[in-house]
Amino acid sequence: MSIRLGGIFAGLLITAVLVLWSLVPGVYNFAFGPPAEKPASYAFYEHGEGPAGGFSFDGAFGKWDYAQLQRGYQIYKEVCRACHSLKFVSFRDLSELGYTDAEIDAEAATWTVPGIDPATGETTTRPGEPTDAFPLPFPNAIAAAAANNNAIPPDLSLMTKARHGGPNYVYSLLTGYGEPDPEKAKKIGFETPVGLYFNKHFPNVNIAMAPPLAIDGQVTYADGTEATIPQMATDVAAFLTWTAEPSLVERKQTGWFVLGFLLFATTLAFFSYKQIWAGMKPKKA
Question: CA neighbours within 13 Å on the CB side: how many for 74?
Fold first, then answer.
């Protein structure tokens, strides 16, 4: 009897919660008025998608394409580093991309990092070492804003973890520059302010960052891959996925071992149960 009453009470409680939940939007709109109209720029916004065929690390069985990661690093070094930092990544981390110790030493030395003069104690610069993190492109936020139309370029170390869609967002943003439909823009009174750039995959479609990947062949890949804008965007998006989560592939592989162990443990527990209680008959009520 108590179980039946408990079930009835639980059902009434759930029904009451659902009814109240359905009334919340109406009460809110009545109290505060209808939601604000979306800005004119929303008419041009398009939800971005990833590259055709996706990324090699997508899915439960995904793997890193190390050649692609090295190409992505080249894009960062030759294009992105002028404005964006990578402060949570060290030169020695490049060993995970397939670079040898000698190559990392040589690569680090091509960068200039802050240092201290041991004789005077004054701030100076020196060639990078494998243990150094990638240097900041600007000395402080004020200098960064002054050089970028009052917009501070974000650090890219964790960018694919900080944006919905991750690598797909980065790819779509880099390939989303263009011009709005002039007839639609005139009809709704939309325009891109001076100093901003139209990007259909950016939330408000006007972005302070100039198109970083402007033309095909902007870089020359060491492995001979054709450097089209979609190719470069795919490569740097993959590289930034690695900087944000270098253990991504290992985590997926570990997950399969965990699932296998849980399946084995469940099977073992079931047979143990059958063996222990095989001779026991249930009592009749």
Answer: 20
Residue 169 Cα to chain centre, angstroms: 7
Q: What digits encode the pLDDT tens for the residues 128-146?
A: 999 999 999 999 999 999 9
The string of DSSP letters for 2-27 reads: HHHHHHHHHHHHHHHHHHHHHHHHHH
Per-residue pLDDT reduced to its tens digit, 47-98: 888 999 999 999 989 999 999 999 999 999 999 999 999 999 999 999 999 9
What structural domains does the chain harbor? 43-89+154-249 (1.10.760.10)
- Taking the C-alpha atoms of residue 143 and residue 152, their distance in angstroms, rounded to an integer, is 9
Residue 107, amino acid: E
Is residue 206 within 8 Å of residue 22, measured between CB atoms? Answer: no
Q: What gap in Å lies between CA 29 and CA 36, rounded to an integer?
A: 11
